[in-house]
Design a protein that fits this description.
CATH superfamily: Tetratricopeptide repeat domain
Radius of gyration: 14 Å
Distance between the termini: 45 Å
Number of domains: 1
Structural class: mainly alpha
Strand content: under 5%
InterPro entries: TPR-like_helical_dom_sf
Largest sheet: none
CATH topology: Serine Threonine Protein Phosphatase 5, Tetratricopeptide repeat
Number of strands: 0
């Protein structure tokens, strides 16, 4: 198992258990080792978002989308970051993309319903 993969898995576990700052520390190291891994960027962005670091979250969601434009969660996360910036038109665009990519997602449908 590569070091970046181990850091990613441990960071993801920490993030899922609500230990976002600890997760960020590991995920940043994983990102530095594997900067083109969208999965690392996505989990890192989510951890930043959950800590209230919306600019860092936005930057990593954007990079995740540059790596894989079909990443529905990155569209969702970017939409949430844009809501925080009060850029509602852009936010709704990304939230719609996420919803249309995964129309069965209750989470995507609920958030989209709040802004449309």
């Amino acid at each position: 198992m590569s070091s970046a993969y181990y850091l990613f898995k441990e960071g993801k576990k920490l993030s899922e258990s609500g230990k976002f700052l600890k997760a960020i520390m590991l995920l940043e190291k994983a990102k530095n080792s594997e900067p083109e891994k969208g999965s690392i960027r996505e989990v890192l962005a989510s951890a930043y978002y959950n800590c209230g670091f919306y600019r860092s979250a936005k930057k990593n969601f954007i990079r995740a989308l540059e790596i894989d434009a079909a990443n529905d969660f990155a569209h969702y996360g970017l939409g949430l970051c844009l809501v925080k910036e009060k850029k509602l038109t852009k936010a709704v665009g990304h939230l719609k993309i996420a919803f249309f990519m995964k129309p069965n997602s209750k989470k995507y449908k609920e958030i989209l319903g709040r802004f449309t």
